[in-house]
Specification:
- The chain is of the alpha+beta class and about 200 residues long.
- The chain has one domain.
- About 20% of the residues lie in helices and about 40% in strands.
- The radius of gyration is 18 Å and the shape is globular.
- It starts with a helix and ends with a strand.
């Protein structure tokens, strides 16, 4: 193995370590529900697909929401990162109330979202149906640039489509179409055409 490869691996590992331990910027808000409405979804039957690079994108539903960013996680490696460079864990309703969020520990990793709380009075159903982990696919360079302006605690308004993605070799990635599921396959795969950061 050449010295250049060794140094390349070292540099990548160093950057990944720094990113993982560097404090994440966080925006906090006074108590109160900031985004009361749940996402709006209109399912599509027989939507016309389009290409993004080597991927075929098929719309499954028109989708829009205004939500509080509970967490974000960037991804740099793996096939999915070629399409979706970031996941947002988003909250609405009670999960956009700072007084509720302060009682919940939220983490992300491996394209999943996890939560825990010591307050047994908080309903797991409320938490799981008023928040979701969303794989963000920017539809344009402008949207992708705006993603860098989003922090934990940002309020975002986004419109686009929930989608299914396929490739010629059989690889596929499909969005959930409900906020009531949990576990593998429960995340939304969100083709974002417009984003506004408050």
């Amino acid at each position: 193995m050449s010295r250049f490869i060794v140094w390349g691996i070292f540099i990548v590992a160093f950057i990944a370590t720094v990113v993982s331990v560097w404090p994440e910027k966080t925006i906090t808000h006074p108590p109160g529900t900031l985004c009361p409405a749940p996402p709006l979804q209109e399912n599509i039957s027989g939507g016309t697909p389009w290409l993004k690079g080597d991927f075929m994108i098929t719309p499954l539903a028109k989708f829009s929401l205004k939500a509080l960013v509970l967490s974000r996680e960037n991804y740099y490696f793996g096939r999915e990162s070629d399409l979706s460079p970031v996941d947002f864990t988003l909250g609405w309703g009670q999960m956009s109330d700072q007084s509720i969020i302060d009682q919940i520990s939220i983490s992300q990793g491996s394209r999943r979202y996890r939560w825990k709380t010591r307050n047994r009075g908080l309903s797991p159903v409320m938490i799981e149906t008023s928040s979701a982990n969303m794989h963000i696919i920017p539809a344009s360079d402008e949207v992708e640039a705006t993603l860098d302006e989003v922090y934990r605690g940002s309020i975002v308004t986004m419109t686009g489509y929930l989608v299914k993605v396929t490739a010629d070799d059989g690889w596929r990635w499909k969005s959930s179409l409900t906020r009531k599921d949990v576990g593998d396959g429960a995340c939304e795969l969100f083709w974002v055409e417009n984003i506004l950061v408050d």
